[in-house]
Write a structure and sequence with these properties.
Elements (H helix, E strand, L loop, with lengths): L18 H14 L6 E5 L1 H8 L4 H6 L2 E6 L12 E6 L3 H17 L6 E6 L5 H9 L7 E4 L5 E4 L2 E3 L5 H8 L3 H17 L4 E5 L1 H19 L17 E8 L5 H4 L5 H8 L6 E4 L16 H8 L2 E4 L5 H6 L4 H20 L7 H35 L2 H14 L6 H12 L27 H15 L5 H15 L3 H10 L6 H20 L3 H6 L20 H8 L25 H10 L11 H6 L29 H4 L6 E5 L9 H12 L4 E7 L4 H14 L2 E6 L5 H5 L10
Parallel strand pairs: 1-2, 1-3, 3-4, 4-5, 7-14, 8-9, 9-13, 13-14
Antiparallel strand pairs: 6-7, 8-12, 10-11
Helix pairs in contact: 4-5, 7-8, 10-14, 13-14, 15-17
Amino acid sequence: MQTTEGSTSETVNEPNLLQLKDILRDELIAILETIRGSKALVLDKEVSGALSMIVDFGLLKEHGVEKIFLLEAGPLDTGATKGVFYFTLPHVQKMKIIAEQVKAGLQASSDATKEYSLQLVPRRTLICERVLEEEGVLGDIALGEYHMDFIPLEDDVLSLELPATFKELYLDGDFSSVQYTARALMRLQGLFGFFPRIAGKGDFAQILAEGLTRMRLELMSTGLGGGNASNAPAISSTFDSVVIIDRAVDLTTPLLTQLTYEGLISEVFGINDGSITLGGSAGTAATQGGASGSGSDAQAAAKRKRIMLSSSDGIYRMVRSMNFSAVGNMLSKMSRQLQDSYESRHKAKTVQEIRSFVGKLGGLQSEHQSLKTHVSLAETILKRTQTDDFSSILDIEQTLVGGGDLTREQMACFDKLFALADLQAPVPGVGGELKGQTPPASSPNSIHKVLRLLCLYSLWRGSHFKQKTYDAWYEEIIAGFGFHHTFTLDNLDKVGLLASPSSAKAAAAAATASSQRVASANTPDESLATGLLTTTMPSTRPRNPVHTNQLGFLRKTLNLVVGDVRESDPDDVSFVYSGYAPISIRLLQCLVRDPAVYTTNTSSRYAALLRPLGDSRSRPAQRDGHNMGGVKSGWEGWDDVLSELPGETVDIVQSPSDRDADAAIADEMVKRLGEKAPATLVVFLGGCTFTEIAALRLLSQQHNHRYIAATTQIINGNSFLDPLIQKPPQI
């Protein structure tokens, strides 16, 4: 990503997001200091990886941590440690496991002074307290919360590292992740000032925006603001706006095969906690401490090799967001440059020249090792991309999003997937370790792989998806993968990913009727009198679409499919899928008024909305180093597009005070600040892919403006669907 270090003075307020890691580390150490002496940590597996990105084992050891365990059912032997800290997500079953371990520890321990502390991440809940009380240990354990909010994975990527948020929101009806996101955003606003504008799309985007507004008003009415506008928290001059994208608005993007280098590493190896793990005896543990648990776990960990993937690796930083087709040439170029650097030692004649080369030698050796690693990874990925299986699936994906009809050969590919169903297939991206040193050349036919393609077909074929086709696929899945997947298919139907054609029609009619009933309740009194709410249940389906084929309309209007994409030297975000632009990013471009949205099929009315930045396929924003990006206005003019997408539309201007009379002043202030604010925060509720991050980085380069991704979790198609997939019964 192009930085703005050499930009004009307008970018002096660029956000330093890495300070969030320091804040989280200091808060963690403060919690550990509440118990003196030696300590043991017991970590929820879903929390341990995130904690490892905040603090290393060496620092923990300095503060008395001697042992680290993963939270598992069964006895826990912490030895003679003076204190035991649990860090876990607030789940009922985990509370029961902890209660059993605490009771067993209190009965077996000869040391009555041993202390237990439970830190719920990121917030404590009443139901967890109730479970601990019912288990009889609430008085024996110090209960607190560790506010592990946004973790800076990179200087332009923040993540809450919350698993399964999409499923919790749209299947379970659990809105807690929205509250966690709101509190994390409030922390950001405490550091950088209130966002001048909140824009977004989707039902949960609206719920989050309303939560942020309420929290801001509460903050202003308490001691900090004192109800006095002059004492109110400042409006940010760092962020021009926060754009909230509900994952339900763009279900296609995570289902597609990612084609950037980083995206394909995620698809082939699975990136977890900023690293990939390879099996085999050749690997050595690369963790900075690791978790000690059972002997078998420790032995398995010693046989695995962990490869960290971050911007601290200069080569990875250069190639991670490139389309994979261009990575080979770039690595070859870097190899030649490295060889030239080594050859320079022959030109060193004087002592000063020799000393200069020796000073560079350590960096050259590190770069050489990094280059060797990425060449090996690229070779493995290349083998995968050259298989007929990969090409066939990619061809089907491109045909579907392009609006074409599948050929008989392409439809036969579905039958092949069913026939070769592999119940034991490893699934990169959902926490499973690869059993071999490298992944197999062909992707195993896991249930995840099959469902990704079926869901994509369901979404893009729409009314052309026949009931008899759905019924046939239903039977094939049950026969090939097991009867328990009746629950899986029911889950996918409920969230609108793989809907039965008959149920899809009924759901669409219900959504429209519900929206009409709400609209008919003109006043709060009328709404209460008729027993109606002023909002409808969150849905992944558009409520009042004008077009029967919504995605087909969006494909043309938002220029989703680009035929002449430049993969090696991209000029459009569609390079991340070799010709397909994510809907989520195109919506951001609508707010930015980016001319890349314009096509010959776009009406003159839409073309008039776009900012006159020059040729639509050029890089106009880099001219003169000016900040040509950011959200300078809201959704005005894009009503036809927004009506074809699920959920509510959000556009809120945050006033310096809570008085309505200040609205016009606030709007003018937002426009004025927007011309200078160097960054826009883009929040993905329900997960974000590496391709979307790569697209944001390209826009940052083109607009000379930073677009920072904040998400509940980094996902690929496998990890997106996995929470919705019913696991086989344990026998």
